[in-house]
Amino acid sequence: MAKASDNVFPKVEMAEGSAPATPGANKVRLYAKSDGLLYSKDDTGAESLVSGGAGGGFTFSGASVTKSAQTINDSSLTKITFDTEDYDTSSYHDTGSNTDRLTTPANGKYRVGVTGYWSGNANGNERTVLIQVDTGSGAASAIAGESRAPGSINHWVSLVVEKSFTSGQYLTVQVYQDRGGTLDFNNAIFFIQRLDP
User: Is it the case that residue 70 has pLDDT exceeding 60?
Assistant: First the structure.
């Protein structure tokens, strides 16, 4: 009788589905979700992406979304809503609802960034861009930001941060300006990339 160890390329096949129940004490469950990646769940209920995903090797996970221009009201902290996806491997973004968000699909380390520019206008005192993370119950905390005095030429902003997040946390880009009227924030690109396999 042949054993799995006799096979040069042993394999295990799993049906894709939703996350299973939390295992008993001192146990871990492995499972493949409908995104085609392999996950583990420990006895505390913490879900983690397993190195290599379901396909073997490292599987890239991330999203990049864009907004060509958004008009920002004076003296009002405003979330940028993103209407176009360049790519989205694991349902980080939804173009139908909560379009301002990128939501982490699993616990892990991520690189998050935003780039874009303010239309040139020297009026007022401040042009601010923040990357915010949901901290629960609708509260948010800035994890990266830039604030500068305005200028008469277009002002580009680029922010990148690497941080650990838990499954289901969402991030937004918020901007603020005080020129005394509306001002456009243009060519916004918001991205997230999973760093640990």
Answer: yes
